[in-house]
Amino acid sequence: MSADGLITTHPDGCPRCWWPGLDPFYVAYHDTEWGVPEYDSRALYEKLILDGFQAGLSWITILRRRDGFRRAFQNFEPERVARFTEDDIERLMGDTGIIRNRAKIRGTVSGARAWLAIEEGGPGFSDFLWDFCDGRPIQTNPRSRADIATETEISRKMSKALKQKGFTFVGPTIVHAFMQAVGMVNDHLVGCHRHAACAALGEAPRP
């Protein structure tokens, strides 16, 4: 693994961003999910919630428990999560398949209710989020970790809007990480084999 935040050439000959190291599980996430534009409202809710759970932890910790989170939160179907009761919250506090943080569990439920309000009141959760970057992925063309922001003016605006809607654990840094993951920002390093691929996906017609 590159310690200097530069491109790492893997044993398969592929150049990649430094952060997944050589962990096959993490590399697969880097190669197939991170930076790919996501427009599905439910999937965006799931990723935003999981990024909130990451606060104070590493992303790989959350990623390895993603199946547990999906089971615990009804596959992150907001309509179902919004109906969770105090009994459900207590039950989840005993679930070893997730991160047992009461405030974050409550935030998942309040976030589901906020998601429903946005969906029902328009313009829909996906459009609500993507409008912050004018509906198209932002291409940053970073060449090293030093070129990658931890938050931006856009992530600060999105963070503020999400909080106003009722979401929690959506500070500007968490929101920027979310934007990177769902392809609103293409922060794959120039030279990484996924940089050009994700840039091309960003230019493709929106589904």
TrEMBL record:
GO terms for biological process, alphabetical: base-excision repair
Q: Which GO terms describe its molecular function?
A: DNA-3-methyladenine glycosylase activity; metal ion binding
The record's keywords, sorted A to Z, are: Metal-binding, Zinc
The yes or no answer to whether the keyword Thylakoid is present is no
Gene3D superfamilies attached to this UniProt entry: Hypothetical protein, domain 2
The residues the entry assigns to the signal sequence are: none
- Keyword Transmembrane assigned to the entry: answer is no
Q: Which Pfam families match?
A: Adenine_glyco
List residues binding Zn(2+): C17, H30, H188, C192
The superkingdom of the source organism is Bacteria
Q: Which PANTHER family match?
A: DNA-3-METHYLADENINE GLYCOSYLASE 1, DNA-3-METHYLADENINE GLYCOSYLASE I
The protein here is known as: DNA-3-methyladenine glycosylase I
Organism taxonomic ancestry: Bacteria, Pseudomonadati, Pseudomonadota, Alphaproteobacteria, Hyphomicrobiales
